[in-house]
Amino acid sequence: MSEGLAHTTVLLNEAVEALAIKPDGIYVDGTFGRGGHSALILERLGSNGRLIALDKDPAAVAAGKAWRDARFQMVHRGFAKLAEVLSELGVAKVDGATRRCEASGAGAPSSTFSRTGGLCPTVLKVDGILLDLGVSSPQLDDAARGFSFRFDAPLDMRMDTSSGMTAAQWLATVDEALLAEVIRDYGEERFAKQIARAVVAARAIEPINTTRQLVELVGKAVRTREPGQNPATRTFQAIRIYLNEELEELARVLPECVTHMQTGGRLVVISFHSLEDRIVKHFMRDMAEGDKLPRNVPIRASEVPRGRLKLVGKAVRAGEAELQANPRARSAVMRVAERSDVA
Ligand SMILES: C[S@@+](CC[C@H](N)C(=O)[O-])C[C@H]1O[C@@H](n2cnc3c(N)ncnc32)[C@H](O)[C@@H]1O
Question: What is the pTM (predicted TM-score) of this model?
Answer without folding.
Answer: 0.90
